[in-house]
């Protein structure tokens, strides 16, 4: 089966002359080719300067990462981190015997997170680094499934039809988990009355085959926290009524690195007894470049032993668990660097500043006659708004997104999930680096473009419109 992109085939058929990548004479060297094939490895080598310039020029066509308000992923680190990144680029995280010092740093990091998230005994917790939160979610889901299977088999019951309960606004990695690992996904729909998984009607979705409930600290669509304590209280009542003891996995891809610093008194973590595991993205509000996530289980009992592999480590024994194999060790070292460099107070300052900017922006957006806020960015520094009903028939949020993109800003518009797909929202993610000054420039550009759109005397075309961000 071929997975060759269709556009490659189109080039072959219709644009034979465009198959090569031209080399600008300014960058070419005597004796070198003036073009190289686009879709196959060249027959001859290029000088490094020429190859570099070709790749550099291709990448230059990407958007400005600092102006990308669609992504949660970190786009900036300081010069010392950049130097450390280059020094550690050759380290393979899976090879713990070859790189034992990096393996030790990994253990320190997830133990620090266990402490940050109020594990009863951080040194008795267990965790691992991952490739982002998606792998961490897979591991969290697998642990829930395996614990449920063991309990069912011990009770002499069938373990054939596991299900996992979550909000319809869940990130796509959970859909992938259920698909890849044969778990029925049960989605609790969100609505205007229940804008996230808040425990409402939860008893209609859980049963003896439920391996767990996923609660999101920072819904991708809007940034709101799902209330862990409220969901846990409902599950407590369900257990009292039915005997079903259903654990919670907290998807803290973003919020697990915001709440401890911005809302330290909010109980969402291992302070809630029903929480078995928590994941986060080191490369989101953990502030590291793309490529690292984390998962921590409350204690070793929460992670079935048959999911853990043992490797030789400094003459001893070290547990390891992961889905991915070879992967960068550099980002783990960068995470440790930031834990040391910023400390608790430094993280608090960075995250509070992001929160302040988000709430400043949302308050100003709320003043526009054209918009209704969906939320205000007071959970994670993310907020969304929709076009006020009846404001105009001449334009929509996709048009505004396109107009802002012309000025370099990526501010996505997209429909809400199932049962609210008729609602289109626009969202801003505030990350480290979006200053108050840049935010003020953004507001000026939004004001200019809204005034332009409001001045239209006829409707803008809508053909070909599609979401500019995928969850």
UniProtKB/TrEMBL annotation:
GO biological process: L-glutamate catabolic process
Record-linked Pfam families: Pyridoxal_deC
One Gene Ontology term of the molecular function aspect: glutamate decarboxylase activity
Cofactor (UniProt): pyridoxal 5'-phosphate
Coiled-coil annotated residue ranges, if any: none
Secreted recorded as keyword: no
Keyword Ribonucleoprotein: no
Enzyme class: lyase
Enzyme Commission no: 4.1.1.15
Modified residues (N6-(pyridoxal phosphate)lysine): 284
Keywords for this protein: Decarboxylase, Lyase, Pyridoxal phosphate
Cellular component GO terms, alphabetical: cytosol
Catalytic activity as recorded in UniProt: L-glutamate + H(+) = 4-aminobutanoate + CO2
Family indicated by similarity: Belongs to the group II decarboxylase family.
Protein name according to UniProt: Glutamate decarboxylase
Native organism taxonomy: Bacteria, Bacillati, Actinomycetota, Actinomycetes, Propionibacteriales
């Amino acid at each position: 089966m071929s997975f060759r992109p269709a556009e490659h085939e189109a080039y072959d058929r219709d644009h034979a002359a465009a198959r090569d990548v031209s080399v600008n004479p300014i960058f070419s060297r005597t004796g070198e080719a003036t073009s190289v094939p686009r879709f196959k490895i060249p027959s001859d080598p290029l000088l490094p300067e020429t190859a570099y310039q070709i790749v550099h020029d291709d990448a230059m066509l990407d958007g400005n990462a600092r102006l990308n308000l669609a992504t949660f992923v970190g786009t900036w680190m300081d010069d010392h981190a950049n130097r450390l990144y280059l020094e550690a680029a050759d380290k393979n995280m899976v090879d713990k015997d070859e790189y034992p010092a990096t393996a030790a740093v990994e253990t320190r990091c997830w133990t620090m997170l266990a402490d940050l998230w109020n594990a009863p005994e951080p040194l008795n917790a267990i965790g691992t680094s991952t490739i982002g939160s998606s792998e961490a979610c897979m591991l969290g889901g697998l642990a829930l499934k395996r614990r449920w299977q063991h309990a069912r088999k011990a009770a002499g019951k069938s373990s054939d039809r596991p299900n996992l309960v979550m909000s319809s606004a869940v990130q796509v990695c959970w859909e992938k988990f259920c698909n890849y690992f044969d778990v029925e996904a049960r989605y609790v729909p969100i609505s205007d009355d229940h804008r996230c998984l808040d425990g409402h009607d939860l008893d209609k979705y859980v049963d003896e085959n439920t391996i767990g409930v996923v609660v999101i600290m920072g819904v991708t669509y809007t940034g709101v926290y799902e209330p862990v304590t409220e969901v846990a209280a409902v599950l407590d009542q369900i257990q009292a009524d039915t005997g079903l003891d259903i654990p919670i996995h907290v998807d803290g891809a973003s919020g697990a690195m915001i709440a401890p610093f911005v809302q330290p008194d909010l109980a969402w973590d291992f302070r809630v007894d029903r929480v078995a595991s928590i994941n986060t993205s080191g490369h989101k509000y953990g502030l590291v470049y793309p490529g690292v996530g984390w998962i921590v289980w409350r204690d070793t009992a929460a992670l079935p032993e048959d999911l853990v592999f043992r490797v030789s480590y400094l003459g001893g024994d070290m547990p390891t668990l992961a889905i991915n194999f070879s992967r960068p060790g550099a980002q783990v070292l960068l995470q440790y660097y930031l834990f040391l460099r910023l400390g608790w107070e430094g993280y608090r300052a960075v995250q509070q500043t992001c929160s302040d900017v988000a709430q400043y922006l949302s308050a100003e957006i709320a003043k526009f006659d054209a918009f209704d806020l969906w939320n205000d960015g007071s959970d994670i520094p993310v907020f969304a708004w929709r076009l006020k009903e009846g404001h105009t028939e001449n334009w929509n949020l996709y048009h505004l997104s396109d107009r802002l993109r012309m000025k370099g800003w990526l501010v996505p518009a997209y429909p809400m999930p199932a049962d609210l797909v008729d609602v289109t929202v626009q969202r801003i993610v505030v990350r480290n680096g979006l200053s108050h000054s840049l935010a003020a420039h953004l507001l000026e550009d939004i004001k200019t473009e809204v005034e332009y759109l409001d001045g239209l005397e006829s409707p803008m075309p809508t053909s070909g419109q599609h979401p500019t961000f995928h969850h």
